[in-house]
Every structure is written in structure tokens, then in C-alpha cells.
Amino acid sequence: MSFKKFFNIVLFATLISISFKVEAQQFIYSTKFKSYNTEQKKFNKAIEEARIELEKIEAAKKAKEAAILAKKMAFLNENWTNKQFFAYDRKTIKEPFHLEFDTLNYSSPIDKDKVVTSRFGWRKGRAHNGIDIDLVKGDSVRAILPGKVRYVKWHGGHGRTVVVRHDNGLETVYAHLTKQLVKENQEVKQGEVLGTGGITGNARGSHLHLEVRYKGQPINPEYLFDFSDTNEIRSQDLWVSRKYTNPVNFSSRRKPKITVHNSEEEAKNASKIQKKIYRIRRGDTLSKIAYRNNMSITQICKLNKISRNKTLRIGQKLVLIE
Q: How many domains does the chain have?
């Protein structure tokens, strides 16, 4: 074989080999590109699905916020009046009812240590629907929660009074003021000065009479707020039972035992009166029995259908609340 012929054969074989390698590489690149393309499409699809899901979550969040805002506005505007102290018909309230707070703390209504001189409960044969906090005439009185001023007037035994409506259905009442420093329909911040304390109305000594009401229904303020130095709201989400809306269940002279209801079922169970029988012993008086059993004398009299002046006999049975 001549050299030229051999060279041509080798050249031909080399070209075939190179062509095969090129085609093989093109095939590999093509396969990789298709695979990359497929993965890229899957990735883009996942990104799009995530975007749509985020939009749904954002829309649901906005809808929830809008619903909460609408509920708050409904509470603020319901039965709004500047003319009357009582804006609601309390007979429409169904117990237990639900309350929510946006914050864990309230602002102290006064600038010094809170000394409660009289509590929510039965006092001298009448309902005391709030708590009395000691102060000096002229001391600043502040809003414990943000809200809108509904009522700024003289109200009978309350004297100069300010009522603030809050966006969870509550109203707070500040009574016996010397000066009212806010106007009706004015929005106030938590801790903002409403007036100055005093002794107007039926007040013996200067103090702040503070009431908390839900749609007109009084609530024991100490059920919702801890009146120690912590200024804590007892729970951001709670239920209020009949037990904590009726002053006859408490004595205005004693600090109440508080159990917060975190569910409707708990509140309903608390509304069921658990009774026990007590047998009169030597030396017993209605006052002593009431004190030992964390009850009021009026409560014992109503349960047993007796008068406060009833003569107690040793061995006589009384119905009490556990």
C-alpha cells in the first residue's frame, strides 16, 4: 500500500471519529439542555404556585384585619349617644359573653400607687358597681385603655363623670371628678388625662370611682384588671360569666378571689351555683358567716329568704355558696 493511500485511510478514520465525538457531545448537550429546561419549568411553576399561595394568605390576612376593624367600629358606634349615661338596654346582654384585648397591660388611672378603698360588691344594702381608688383632689385621672369619649356630664351621685367607649365593647366610667378635661366624641389614647379627681356627687372623701361595663352591664373591674403595680390585663381573651357581673356575689370590703374563664364552657359552669349546707354554731352571726365563706350578708339572706335581723338558732341550717 502506498503512503498516500494509507494516509487517506487514516485521515478518513480520524474525520469519522471526530464527527462521532461532535455528534455525541451535541447529543449530550441537547439531553442536558432538555433536562435543564424541564427542571427550570418545574422551578418556575413552583415559584408561581408559591406566589399565588402568598397572595391568598395576604388576601386572607387583609380580610381578617378588615373584619376585625369592622367589628371594632361596630362596637364604637353601637347605640352611640352623648345625652344619656346608659346607652344600652342591659336586658339584651346574654351571659356569658366574650371579651378580647389588643394589649397585655392597661394604664393606671392615677399617677401614684393604687389603693382600693371600696370594691365591686354589695355595700350598705346597695350594689356598688365599681371600685373606689384613693387619690388627692386635683390628681390627674387617666384613660386605662384607648377609646372615644362618649359622655362628659354631671351624673347624679357620680358627680362630674367621663365615660370612654372602647373598641372591644367595654366602657370605662370615671366619676367624682373635680374637672373634666376632655370633650364628647374626642378620641383618647391609653394613659391620656381625662380630668382631675375630687369629691363631686355622693362622695365621702376624695377618690376615683371606676366602673367597667360591657354594653351597659357592669363587670367586676378586678376580674379584668390586676390593680397591683404590674397594671396587667388578666387575659387577652376571656369569657365573662354572671358570677362577675352581679355585685351581690361580692363584698365591697374584701378582695375577691378571681378565676379567669378561658372558654365559654368554663364560664357557663361558673354560672352554676354550687350550694352547701351550713349548720349554725355558738357565736355565729351573719357577718361572721359571710366573711368566712367569702359571701355578702345580702347574698346569704337572699339565698335563705331571711332578713338581716333574723335571729339565728344553734343547729339551724343555712344554704351557702361553695
A: 3
